[in-house]
Amino acid sequence: MDLEAESIVRIDMAMSSNITDSCKKLLETQKEIEATEQALKKLKDVETTLSEQTIPNLMQQAGVELIKLEGGISVEVKPFYSARIPVSKSEEAFEWLRENGHGDLIKNQVSLEFGMKQDNEAKSIIEELKAKGLPVKQKTTVHPSSLRGFVREQIQDLGKDVPAELFGTYVANKTKITTKE
Prior knowledge:
Radius of gyration: 29 Å
Largest sheet: 3 strands, antiparallel
Number of strands: 5
């Protein structure tokens, strides 16, 4: 008995053609998706340039903050703030917040792992647990909207600087267009 001959699967030529055609269609679709994503990225870049540079600069040159156009359209340029603490800078950022009186922005999540019948230990404070050698995990974070609001307040309202390298700050003027509809 020839095992090799037995293991060969015969594929109908029409089925083979269908598979080939479907694979070609998949490759074409994947290329089209990539091209569409690239086109979308370019459109978003144009939108950002118009919204954050071109229109704010033109309105500043014209000395206006708000323009009402025909058809009930109004155009306004407002400050936009963004901030994100890079993982590599989180400890430095938390320390800066604490040292500068903003430690209340930091959220702490403490997780404790207990085995069965350790309910009494769960009621103890973190220091007691560490002294007993129980595993304590602490996660510190600053909520993104709290950080964004803090950065806006410090820069816009109080005129203070915050370390951009610690907080990944991005500040720009952004165009807001409102329509009646």
